[in-house]
Fold this protein.
Amino acid sequence: ALAEAALDLGFYLSMSGIAAFPKSQDLRDIFAAAPVDRILVETDAPYLAPPPNRGKRNEPSYVADTALKAAEVFGMDYKDFAAKTEANFNRLFWKAAEWQN
């Protein structure tokens, strides 16, 4: 209900490493019900590293592990999912996208 309300207001949902935890199926189900064009992927570094790095100090490079699980949730190839979430980021943070060019 909260995720739906956020989406209705134009917000994006962001998957952190928590969504990749084995016991987080309910959370993954919430994301799976959302449109992929409103999904971002993030890290909670230095905390809550996703599998297979659970128990280690989290770092930004581990966001790829979360994205792998997220691609699975959406039934997408990893590269396609990464491109989609990059496009989502660029749409949301368009000033950052312009600066990159």
User: Anything to note?
Assistant: The first strand starts at residue 13 and ends at 15. The beta strands are 13-15, 39-41.
